[in-house]
């Protein structure tokens, strides 16, 4: 068995020594160099199923670690990508080779001129065909004075099919993880991939709870065109989600104009104060962002129909929730339920009545005592006794003015 056959066997066996696509490419290139193929640069270009990313590029260069870059959807339509060998390979499924060492070699792709200036003498792009029929691409370039030999080109092309299988397995898992993170959240997605998918499987956790809702949404939904309403909702959630995520929170659910998120506590609750401060910081950042968006929308005339500004309310609570799989046999949801969630929802409804943006339960306010003041005791639907509710001091001062 020659060295190239050993590489093929390694790929067919799943490239088990490499944990991810980045590792597969790095180890593959090391093996190619060891068997005498004079590669200088090797790239993998993989299309992906992701709401914001068109694809990923993995690039190895001699003497460097594998570099990974994400490409937005706009990149797929750019002139540079449309006129590239990789796009040609993806569209046709046919390899492209250019022996730049030959004086009469066509430079029909703009990037070939750049490679020639970098001393590249030979270039090969090959299709990587996945089982679902989608074609991706791999490229190989050398600076060796004579370029690749025909035998080396044949070897590189023979790697395409087994390399596709090794990369596809890792890509599918990464895609599944990315989609789960997008639709059920990072922690929920990790639990699902770990096998926590049985209906009724749940565990009890302590968390700081965020419940928010847009005011006047029903009026907007009745009056705005559907696409305008959808665009407004997305921009409105963009005012909240980044702050929640940056502060360590987990988005659990969007419910029309409502949002449910949690900031999980460590076992024993030693980080309760930290989690509550993180949730409060996120709420304050969201308050500023929504106000900024409201001013922009008002200046464009989007806020009409009797609405003077875009406003929302946030309820913050600290409590115990049931976190797990709920639903029917054929449709499950990974979410939180329990009295603590219900209490947060009831407090959120008070924000409009009290003219407040941020309200908190007694349990939450005790973790941030210098930030809150009591605003009263309230009978909340579904709860047998009245509950103390707290508001931010800075909102009380603004109300007084």
Structure description:
With 401 residues, the protein is of the alpha+beta class. The chain folds into 2 domains: 179 residues, Beta-Lactamase, CATH 3.30.450; 215 residues, Alpha-Beta Plaits, CATH 3.30.70.1230. It is built from 16 helices and 14 strands. Strands 7, 8, 9, 10, 11, 12, 13 and 14 form an 8-stranded mixed beta sheet that branches. Strands 3-2-1-6-5-4 form a 6-stranded antiparallel beta sheet, sandwiched between helices. Helix 1 runs parallel beside helix 8 and helix 8 packs across helix 9. The longest helix has 28 residues. The model has no long low-confidence stretch (mean pLDDT 86).
Please describe the topology of this protein.
Blueprint (H helix, E strand, L loop, with lengths): L2 H10 L8 H14 L6 E7 L5 E9 L5 E6 H4 L2 H4 L2 H8 L3 E3 L11 H8 L4 E8 L5 E8 L7 H9 L1 H25 L1 H8 L8 E13 L2 H7 L2 H13 L2 H6 L3 E6 L2 E7 L7 H28 L12 E17 L2 E7 L1 H16 L3 E4 H4 L6 E7 L8 E6 H8 L1
Parallel strand pairs: 10-12
Antiparallel strand pairs: 1-2, 1-6, 2-3, 4-5, 5-6, 7-9, 7-10, 8-9, 10-11, 12-14, 13-14
Helix pairs in contact: 1-8, 8-9
Strand content: 25-35%
Mean pLDDT: 86
Query: Mind describing the biggest β-sheet?
Result: 8 strands, mixed
Structural class: alpha+beta
Low-confidence stretches: none
Strand-and-helix sequence, N→C? Answer: HHEEEHHHEHEEHHHEHHHEEHEEHEHEEH
Total domain modules: 2
Provide the helix percentage. Answer: 40-55%
CATH topology of the largest domain: Alpha-Beta Plaits
Q: How many beta strands in the DSSP annotation?
A: 14
Q: Could you state the CATH homologous superfamily of the largest domain? A: Nucleotide cyclase, GGDEF domain
Number of helices: 16
Rg, alpha carbons: 28 Å
Please state the overall shape, judged from the principal axes of the Cα atoms: elongated
Distance between the termini: 84 Å
């Amino acid at each position: 068995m020659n060295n190239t056959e050993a590489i093929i066997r390694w790929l067919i066996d799943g490239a088990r020594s490499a944990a991810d696509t980045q590792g597969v490419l790095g180890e593959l290139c090391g093996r190619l160099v060891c068997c005498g193929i004079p590669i200088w640069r090797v790239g993998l270009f993989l299309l992906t199923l992701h709401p914001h990313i068109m694809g990923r590029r993995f690039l190895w260069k001699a003497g460097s670690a594998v570099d990974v870059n994400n490409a937005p959807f706009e990149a797929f339509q750019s002139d540079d990508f449309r006129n590239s060998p990789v796009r040609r390979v993806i569209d046709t499924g046919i390899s492209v080779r250019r022996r730049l060492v030959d004086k009469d070699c066509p430079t029909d792709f703009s990037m070939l001129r750049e490679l020639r200036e970098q001393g590249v003498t030979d270039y090969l792009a090959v299709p990587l065909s996945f089982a679902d029929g989608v074609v991706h691409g791999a490229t190989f370039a050398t600076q060796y004075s004579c370029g690749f030999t025909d035998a080396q080109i044949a070897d590189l092309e023979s790697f395409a099919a087994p390399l596709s299988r090794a990369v596809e397995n890792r890509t599918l898992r990464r895609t599944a993880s990315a989609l789960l993170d997008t639709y059920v959240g990072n922690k929920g997605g990790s639990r699902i991939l770990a096998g926590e998918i049985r209906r009724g499987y749940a565990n009890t956790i302590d968390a700081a709870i965020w419940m928010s809702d847009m005011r006047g949404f029903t009026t907007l939904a009745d009056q705005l065109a559907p696409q305008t309403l959808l665009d407004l909702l997305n921009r409105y959630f963009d005012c909240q989600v980044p702050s929640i995520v940056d502060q360590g929170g987990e988005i659990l659910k969007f419910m029309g104009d409502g949002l449910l998120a949690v900031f999980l506590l460590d076992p024993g609750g030693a980080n309760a104060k930290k989690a509550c401060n993180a949730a409060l910081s996120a709420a304050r950042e969201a308050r500023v962002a929504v106000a900024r968006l409201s001013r922009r929308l008002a200046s464009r005339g989007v806020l009409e129909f009797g609405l003077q500004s875009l406003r929302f309310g946030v309820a913050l609570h600290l409590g115990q929730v049931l976190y797990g799989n709920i639903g029917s046999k054929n449709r499950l949801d990974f979410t939180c339920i329990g009295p603590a969630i219900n209490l947060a929802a009831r407090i959120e409804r008070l924000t409009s009545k009290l003219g407040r943006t941020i309200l908190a339960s007694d349990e939450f306010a005790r973790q941030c005592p210098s930030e809150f003041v009591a605003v009263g005791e309230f009978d909340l639907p579904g709860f047998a006794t009245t509950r103390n509710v707290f508001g931010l001091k800075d909102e009380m001062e603004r109300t007084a003015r």
